[in-house]
Design brief:
alpha/beta, 7 helices, tRNA-uridine aminocarboxypropyltransferase activity
């Protein structure tokens, strides 16, 4: 359902897309036991092909926080220093744990009652790297990777074949961590609808 709090606004307040291209009818609420926090670069907020807002609107435990330098952000610093929470940053480098490694690590420490949370950076690779370098607390977080996955982001230029949109990254991260791909399938349905909508627009077809 389209949501606009301002009768003069042309944008939906839920999916952040233009009302005539609103995708809220395709958003399905997904109960994700592991919270996902999205740190979004300011340049992505109004990007018409962005997927972070769609991901956050779909997940029941998800938040978007916009910024580039979070080093003095009380919310983030509070989250990262909370002893009841273990945060992991999705960042594919040679230091990243696989989800299998993380699962084994958790199983080997049964006395650790801290709950898990994942952090995902939303921006181009260059912008995301700058965000990481601007925030020492983020850079110190343990990192996890989800392996090489061919992205299906057909409507936006990819820096390399394995680059994923934010909603794809969220889908693969949560579905593989929980082993419940069917639970998160609505994320891919929504993502495919976004791709189709833009392709139809490019070919001059009304959506």
């Amino acid at each position: 359902m389209k949501q606009s709090n301002d009768k003069n606004s042309r944008y939906c307040t839920r999916c952040t897309r233009a009302l005539k291209a609103c995708l809220c009818d395709y958003i399905v609420a997904v109960d994700n036991p592991t919270p996902l926090y999205i740190l979004q670069h300011p340049n992505e907020v109004a990007h018409p092909k962005g997927t972070a807002a769609l991901l956050a609107a779909s997940l029941q435990q998800s938040e978007i926080h916009v910024g580039e330098d979070f080093s003095r952000d009380e919310w983030l610093n509070g989250l990262l220093t909370d002893p009841s929470r273990r945060c992991y940053l999705l960042w594919p480098d040679d230091k990243a744990l696989s989800l299998t490694d993380l699962r084994q690590q958790r199983e080997s420490e049964p006395s650790d009652a801290a709950s898990l949370a994942f952090i995902l950076l939303d921006g181009t690779w260059r912008k995301a790297y700058r965000m990481l370098q601007s925030n020492p607390a983020l850079a110190r977080l343990p990192r996890i990777g989800i392996g090489a996955i061919a992205g299906q982001y057909a409507i936006r230029k990819k820096p390399f074949p394995d680059a994923l949109s934010t909603i794809e990254a969220g889908y693969h991260l949560l579905s593989r961590w929980e082993g419940r791909p069917a639970r998160y399938a609505p994320l891919l349905t929504l993502f495919n609808r976004l791709n189709t909508q833009w392709q139809d627009f490019a070919e001059g077809r009304r959506v």
